[in-house]
Amino acid sequence: MYRMVSIAEAQKTVLNAIEPLPSISLGLSDAVGHILGEDVIAREPLPPFPASIKDGYAVVSADGPGDYDVAFEALAGTAAGQLKAGSVAYITTGAPLPDGADAVVQVENTEKLPAGPDGQQRVRIVKPAKGPGDDVRALGSDIAAGEVVLAKDSLVGAAEIGLLATVGAATVQVRRKARVAVLSTGDELVEPDQETLGPGQIRDANRFMLAAAARSAGCDVTDLGIARDDPAEVEAKFGEAIAQGVDVLLTSGGVSVGDRDFIKPILERQGTVHFGKVCMKPGKPLTFATLDGAAGSSGRGLVVFGLPGNPVSSIVTFNLVVLPALRAMAGWAEPRLRRVHARTQSAIKLDPERPEYHRASLSWHRTGESAGELAAASTGGQISSRLLSMRSANALLELPAVQGVLPAGSLVSALLIDDLSAMPVPEDIPLVVPSW
Amino acid sequence: MYRMVSIAEAQKTVLNAIEPLPSISLGLSDAVGHILGEDVIAREPLPPFPASIKDGYAVVSADGPGDYDVAFEALAGTAAGQLKAGSVAYITTGAPLPDGADAVVQVENTEKLPAGPDGQQRVRIVKPAKGPGDDVRALGSDIAAGEVVLAKDSLVGAAEIGLLATVGAATVQVRRKARVAVLSTGDELVEPDQETLGPGQIRDANRFMLAAAARSAGCDVTDLGIARDDPAEVEAKFGEAIAQGVDVLLTSGGVSVGDRDFIKPILERQGTVHFGKVCMKPGKPLTFATLDGAAGSSGRGLVVFGLPGNPVSSIVTFNLVVLPALRAMAGWAEPRLRRVHARTQSAIKLDPERPEYHRASLSWHRTGESAGELAAASTGGQISSRLLSMRSANALLELPAVQGVLPAGSLVSALLIDDLSAMPVPEDIPLVVPSW
Ligand code: NWS
Ligand code: NWS
Q: N or C: which end of chain A has fewer CB within 10 A?
């Protein structure tokens, strides 16, 4: 009944159906992980005054080496003093250069002299300034007044927080992130804290896993619990999601062809099912629907992903389709998973019918004079119920639908699903010292 | 006065001085981003019963094709029934295989027949099971009873949360993360929300940036505000950090050679300064000290990093030295930044005296039949006051201390400081379809 769409078509359909969420105002420390909804502009130049780069002496560079009176101290956080030629001022790093001075001589290039009879501090400039501007940061040399320090649509990380603070953006406009609800479906499911399993029971894994994945993407998550395989119960949970005004509902299970698979029929009744079958392994029954005008707060309709029940299928389809959608809602200009290339470490049997997303652990590897490459270690048996195949996986290898076995050492495309800055380090990666 | 140590020695000194924090018990949903303090073992096999992989009919595979009575329904979440040869049972995905049955025929390979006169449901098995076990997950085929599903010292991500839920680990032992306090020092500093800057003033950038970086590493952060350049005020702030029982104190500023640089003398009085000068650019005055027995709650002493005041120096030294320390405290077996190799996109002038950590943005790039490589785009002017050089940077290029200019196209080592799964995509990365 549902046409089998390609993964590319599925991703396109989803990204076309959603739009970035509106901007909200956040305090600067809460902006991490958000996309800016506005250009952030510096009101003043940085430094706002010519500033010393060193601890030492502010000088008139033309004065050259020799013994000088230390006329005064120019300390950070004070107004710039006035220096007369023929004298110097003690200055600390970051202090405003006195008017009249044009350079700084670091303290290491000077020698303290005994004070004069009147208590006058004196110093010998041993190695003079090279010329005007030496060891001085010119006004506005780091940031010009009016400069866009962070453009709309950029992602805020720690360094960007520093830039926001620098320019006085104590609050900032950023895109809101999606509010997500998670629902598991199935008569066989019990909570993780149930010690002993009854006949036919298994513990609910998907809800906690999908909630964690959505939270890692910065989303607020509402836990809708488990719905039994009963249309009324499932519909009541949908109602709860709508009442709570979430933007996205993630269900898992109940999207296949069985008698007790109620998700698709309910979505058809309540909204539009855009696709119900995707040519991919795992994840074939992945379903995407929109319920127009359903969502409370945003009024832009509820977006529903009916993820397959097999745990691997649910988290793989989350990464391939849901995560790009959450990123797009959060304002990412490039929401798709990042593609790299990797060398397989072992032979892999291919699926003749559906492109397969083989879970793997990438690590950096370098032989001889090569530029280095990513080595892909398979996580083992790939059946979609075996969640161990996702353990420590940081990439999905994009394997073609071909009959046969891909030999070890093949170059494949891989999509990053985790942070490579925590990737395994199976071998010592030596420092490359370039020579030319 | 301080010996200039190498960055490798500095990192080693720090990692030697600290140890992993104790384990705490957390609810499974709070464990994300933590390192496991124990092996997590499956009490039961998964599936806990032979389970159907498909919606269809449970059969005795030797019965072969033909028309059969549907004896009963085997639904997910119910106890396994008893099937007699010569009949079949309707079964849903995930349901226990009835005793007596040995395979499943998916519904697509069957034809519903009209019910018998007695209302008996009947079905035609068109394409029979290939043999025993067809479309059945054997008991324990995904996880064996007693299997270690997650080893001590593994990092918990979303998939690992799913595994914890699966095996019923509703609470779990994980390493605690460090509690971190941040303190800025300097008479010139004002808060980011100060609209107009007075003479000699700049806004405090480091505190917010370092707090954000520590939070991104999962740490709880205490904000100690700004201390004026006054030893009594700085010491009072240290006292506050100790009273609050934080594990790590990050200061910025006041570690250089100026008259008003009080951090090192105070640390010497209160504890042990392990190094006070590192041969690196930026970050030369980086200081590391331990205050034995100072910390309240843990009793393992307060670890203090005196970071340089220049904003870039503070965040670069955070990444190179503090972050590995926070990771080691959190139990990471490999806490160091991940090293990769990258091709420079432009010529870079080297520093003849100190190895330089050049901020860059890595992206994936592939030409011809190559295995793909990382292209490193410089973030521009690298003076340590120019925080714009950290904007969008995801790596630090490890440049040698050599006189000269490194030509564009050079292969260099790079340390990852951000998530490559958000890296820029300057060019379309095509899917590689392997052929062999
Ligand atoms: N005739 C026919 N039958 C078919 C297919 C077909 O083509 N034809 N396709 C396949 C494929 S093909 Mo695949 O992704 O390419 O591997 S998924 C897939 C599957 C999807 O079925 P669905 O309706 O989504 O899920 P259900 O509820 O049946 O559960 C599925 C499994 O997952 C478990 N499970 C559920 N929820 C949770 C939870 N929260 N935590 C832990 N485990 C959970 C649950 O116990 C069960 O074992 O049906 C199959 N059956
Ligand atoms: N004679 C001599 N002088 C020297 C050196 C030397 O060898 N000899 N070394 C260099 C180097 S060399 Mo480098 O890392 O390799 O580039 S740092 C470095 C520097 C470190 O000095 P420090 O004492 O740590 O910091 P100070 O408090 O002086 O501030 C430093 C700057 O940063 C700003 N600043 C402070 N805090 C904040 C904040 N929170 N937010 C925003 N900006 C802030 C502050 O305004 C000032 O402009 O001193 C230099 N002076």
A: N
Q: Which residue, B436, B429, B419, is CA-closest to B370?
A: B429
**How far apart are the CA of B110 and the centre of ligand 1, in A?**
19
Q: Is B351 in the pocket of ligand 2 (CB under 6 A)?
A: no
Residue B299 Cα, gap to closest chain A Cα (Å): 29
Q: Can you tell me the mean pLDDT for B342-366?
A: 97
Assigned token pair, A144: 């010009």
Q: For residue A214, give the amino acid letter.
A: A
* Inter-CA distances, A45 with A42, A135, A286, B15, B306, Å: 7, 18, 53, 40, 28
CATH of the domain at A356: 2.40.340.10
Ligand 1 neighbour B93 (Cβ under 6 A): yes
> Is the CB of residue A277 below 6 angstroms from any atom belonging to ligand 1?
no
For residue B37, the enclosing domain spans 27-46+146-175
Return the CATH number at A194.
3.40.980.10
Q: Is a pLDDT exceeding 90 seen at residue A407?
A: yes
List the structure tokens of B225. Answer: 């505000």
Q: Cβ separation of B78 and A343 shorter than 8 Å?
A: no
pLDDT at residue B299, as a whole number: 53
Q: Residue B277 is which amino acid?
A: K
B113-125 average pLDDT score: 96
pLDDT in tens, A366-385: 988 889 999 999 999 999 99
- For residues A160 and B391, the answer to whether their CB atoms sit within 8 Å is yes
What is the structure's pLDDT at B297? 42
Band of the pLDDT at B300, cuts 50, 70, 90? low
Q: Which residues from A are below 8 Å from B400, CB to CB?
A: 433-434
Does B420 contact A338 at a Cβ distance shorter than 8 Å?
yes
As a whole number of angstroms, the longest Cα–Cα distance in chain B is 103
**Percentage of chain B lying above the pLDDT 70 cut:** 98
Shortest Cα distance, chain B CAs vs residue A293, angstroms: 31
- B308 and B239 in one domain? yes
Q: Do residue A83 and residue A214 come from a single domain?
A: no
Instruction: Look up the pTM and report it.
Output: 0.97
